[in-house]
Amino acid sequence: MDVRYIVAFVAVSFLISPVSCTDVYKGIERLKCANREGVNVRPHSEFRHHLRELRTKMRIQASVPGSELDAYIVPTFDEHQSEYVAESDQRRRFLSGFTGSNGDVAVTLNSAALWTDERFLSQADSELDCEWKIFRMNSEPSIGKWLTTQLQPDAKVGADSQIVPHYMWQDLKYELSRKSIRLIDVNRYILDAIWGDQRPQPFNDPIKTHPVVFAGEKWESKIVKLRANLTGVRADAMIITSLTEVAYILNLRGNDIPYIPVFKAYLIVTQKEIFLYTNQSRIDFGVSLHLKSEPCHHENCVQVRDYNAIWSDLRTFAQQWQRVLVPTYCVFDMGASEAIYSALPQKIIVERVSPIIYMRAQKNEVERNGMLNAHIRDAAALCDILSYLEERFGYGDNWTEWQLAREIDRTRRSQKYAHDISFETVVAYGEHAALPYYTPTNTTDTFIYNNSTLLIDSGGQYFDGTTDVARTLHMGVPTAEQRRAYTLVLSAMIRLSTLVFPENLRLSDVDILPRGILWSDFKDYPHGSGHGVGSFSSVHESPITIAHTTKHRYTFKEGYFFSNEPGLYRTFDFGVKLKNVLEVVDTGKVHPTGKRFFAFRDVTLVPFEPKLIDRTMLSSQEKRWLNEYNAQIRNLVGAELKRQTKMQAFYWMMNKTKHIIEYLPEKEYRSAQEANNAISMGKASRILIAFILFVSVRALL
């Protein structure tokens, strides 16, 4: 063969190989991009500009002298791998325009892709420019695998090791190395330079103490338990990077992160010392007294140091420690960053799930009572706003999703011990309700009408507890299909709420109970059946997650709180979601193996919508559960509404929680009721005739 043909073939193959590789993974179908005409979409010019600017920075990036970046990874996290991040840390949102709470981005010089979970796929499709590919998180391809199809060997991928979890960094490094692609630490935020003066300032509010009257245990007692755990793994110290763990262990709270009452800080606990790394100007006299910081000369006091001093201290401490516990991934907790791991010699690191996760999840008696009380007040707030909504709707008022969401937030914040909401309030009408985590924006907000379902998913942060509740309403006359969907979801919820089980049952095993109801109707929902709930902490708390797809082997413990949240979503039509928070309680009974029997108690006490319930679909046991649940609402929430003199809400609640017949099917019940009425009328007529005759006879005599 002519050598010119061989050279030409090799050259053409080299030129087209990157193109053919990019077609390997196309991502989900971009429905909004396929049919943009007539669809209200967000303006994308701002985010296109950000993407161009980033690629320019990548070409001149000099983290490694003389090199450029071929790709750049932007995770959703901050330096503490938080689930929610402050406005000043929302780099992924700034770059892409995607506003969902979970998602990672990878950008090459020619392509851009987002990975998010099933909850946010539709939202990502509507928010991202059509240049972006969208992939499902935790499925093929991973970020690393996708980058290997986009880049040539010896390419360089940049990421900031302070905001990338260690486990994620190691996975990326391994996958990229298989194609001789380097993952390098970019030691400054190249996105921040593009953001410039427009980047919001971080919060710097004073840190507050969380009193024992709410926490139920002194922080010194928690430290004793933590040190015992460290002794158990022969560790000299532990580095705590999770903001919720720092707040929990020290009984402190802050306002740095939306929806979660935490503050930016690191904590190091050794067997003899405690070091808190944060902005020292935020520590007032009261907090200093709480931490026994001035002076600090014993093992149960906290030495406060500057936030960035941790990096120099780690280098010093690493020469003293033999073994140090560094947290690893656990459900909603991502573990420590790659930067933390890299700051320590590998030989002294003990990788473990943080013991604080288990301490925090199992609520003490004060926290358990507080959670119930918080849910009672939260239910009163929802009864108040929902009764007002129905009244104004009846008068012909026009409400939008956004207006209702703000009114729910305002009403919730007016309650006793209220701090804030626990996540962005979801108010979704009609086809928006088919998006499980939709939140109204200025471009998607719509009026609420009376011919479809209205889904409200919301929660509150109170000093004595955290709430998370979803209810689906209908402002008109629901269709048979809507009632069937609602009743299926209600039945699924009841199935989990009524479970009694031995204490060694795994969390993931119970997912089949609510989901099985939907499966039997050949339906499903794209999210877990539940998650752990904190106490004046994160609304998503490890280690609890109710999902059969997880591989975790965690079991239920008395004092755990978690959500029970089945749903049913018909794309472009309507959606139904119901959510209660459950408490794990001891039944007092013992399994033949000696294990205790546990059960669940519903602490959410918000009425369901009777007009959406098809009672012919419920068993007598399910009806009994509903009656008992409604009786609890009447008793506990009714008393709270009276105390607050919210009588309109009280009567609305009473109307929604009427007793229903349990043992007869609906048709038989109605027939029996009509027969009883006829019999009663017959008896009354005979008694009346007898009385008239008796009076007449006496008159004649």
Trace the largest sheet across and list its strands. Answer: 4-3-2-1-5-6
The strand count comes to 28
* CATH fold title of the largest domain: Creatine Amidinohydrolase
Give the biggest sheet. 6 strands, mixed
CATH architecture of the largest domain: Alpha-Beta Complex
CATH class wording of the largest domain: Alpha Beta
Structural class: alpha+beta
Work out the oligomeric state of the chains in this entry. single chain
Helix content: 25-40%
Overall pLDDT, averaged? 91
Question: Span between N and C termini?
Answer: 137 Å
Count of the domains: 4
Structure report:
39% of the residues lie in helices and 17% in strands. The protein is globular, with a radius of gyration of 29 Å. The longest helix is centred in the C-terminal third of the chain and has 35 residues, at 666-700. It is of the alpha+beta class. Helix 6 runs parallel beside helix 7. The protein is built from 22 helices and 28 strands. Pfam families: Creatinase_N, Creatinase_N_2, Peptidase_M24, Peptidase_M24_C. Belongs to the peptidase M24B family.
